[in-house]
Specification:
The chain has a single domain, classed as BirA Bifunctional Protein, domain 2 (2-Layer Sandwich). 25% of the residues lie in helices and 25% in strands. It contains 5 helices and 11 strands; from the N terminus they run αβαβββββαβββββαα. The strands form 2 sheets. Strands 1, 2, 6, 7, 8, 9, 10 and 11 form an 8-stranded mixed sheet that branches. A 3-stranded mixed sheet has the order 4-3-5, with no helix packed on it. A hairpin with a 2-residue loop joins β9 (175-185) and β10 (188-196). The two termini are 31 Å apart.
Length: 262
């Protein structure tokens, strides 16, 4: 993965060719994938916000995919229902059984959809910073693209994964192996997916993961009885993401036009 800044070319210098498809491909920036390593959640959040702002201010700035793992942390989306913060199997109030006092790691409330989840060592985080104005401004399509990316990755490691109706994320039978929660600013995506690769899953026991009662959390390591590193899985998903991004983007032969904020 290339951590260096990708070369940029101003859209003003690109002239539409006689071939509309070729012209639209010229207008679309490539995907710049970065392996960040292990990083605290707050630092990753600042990095995402900086990239979203740069992408909004400069449409020629490359789409980005940040791959990393976090120090232990809990997050919850923009929802008034915080009952998923309660200890699993316990009676809870709408604010959570004990709020976040009982959690063994810090809690961040962030601008994504969804309920509480855990991130930590052994989990691959993927944060795409993608201009969805070039993807039809279709959040449903974007979520399905993220799911398929993970399903295809797992298939390469002999894990048969699938979607479940009305439950965003990726599953192995009835066991959840990856969570997805996205945020959007000015139709530019942030946050993304969390794939359980290896390591300790017990921190999930302190919450109701994604608000799904009695859900079983699994990992690539548990499903295959094989050892994986987050870095090697990140390399595999980089190649898949580069190849499949064209499935998400739309062909448009016209110059870029900004859209209202979301």
């Amino acid at each position: 993965m290339n951590g260096e800044a990708s070369s940029r070319e101003s859209l003003a210098r690109i002239h539409l060719s006689e071939d509309p498809m070729k012209a639209s491909q010229e207008l679309r920036p490539p995907l710049n994938v970065r392996w960040v390593g292990r990083i605290e959640f707050a630092r990753a959040l600042v990095l995402q916000e900086e990239l979203v702002a740069e992408k909004y201010n400069d449409p020629s700035f490359d789409d980005q995919l940040l791959l990393l793992e976090h120090e232990p942390v809990y997050t919850i989306g923009r929802t008034p229902d915080r009952s998923s913060l309660s200890a699993r199997g316990s009676q809870s109030t709408p604010d959570g059984e004990l709020g976040s006092v009982h959690l063994p790691h810090p809690l961040f409330s962030i601008n994504r959809g969804g309920q509480a989840t855990y991130h930590g060592p052994g989990q691959l985080m993927g944060y795409p910073i993608i201009d969805l104005r070039r993807c039809g401004q279709d959040l449903h399509k974007y979520l399905r693209w993220l799911e398929q990316l993970l399903i295809d990755l797992l298939a390469k490691h002999d894990i048969v994964a699938l979607r479940r109706k009305s439950l965003t994320g990726v599953w192995v039978e009835n066991r959840k192996i990856a969570s997805i929660g996205v945020g959007v600013r000015h139709w530019i995506s942030m946050h993304g997916f969390a794939l359980n690769v290896s390591g300790d899953l017990s921190p999930f026991d302190h919450i109701v993961p994604c608000g799904i009662t009695d859900v079983t959390i699994t990992s690539m390591e548990k499903e295959t009885k094989r050892a994986f590193t987050v870095a090697e899985v990140a390399q595999a998903i980089e190649m898949l993401a580069r190849r499949s991004l064209s499935d998400l983007r739309i062909i448009t032969p016209v110059n870029f036009v900004s859209s209202p904020s979301l």
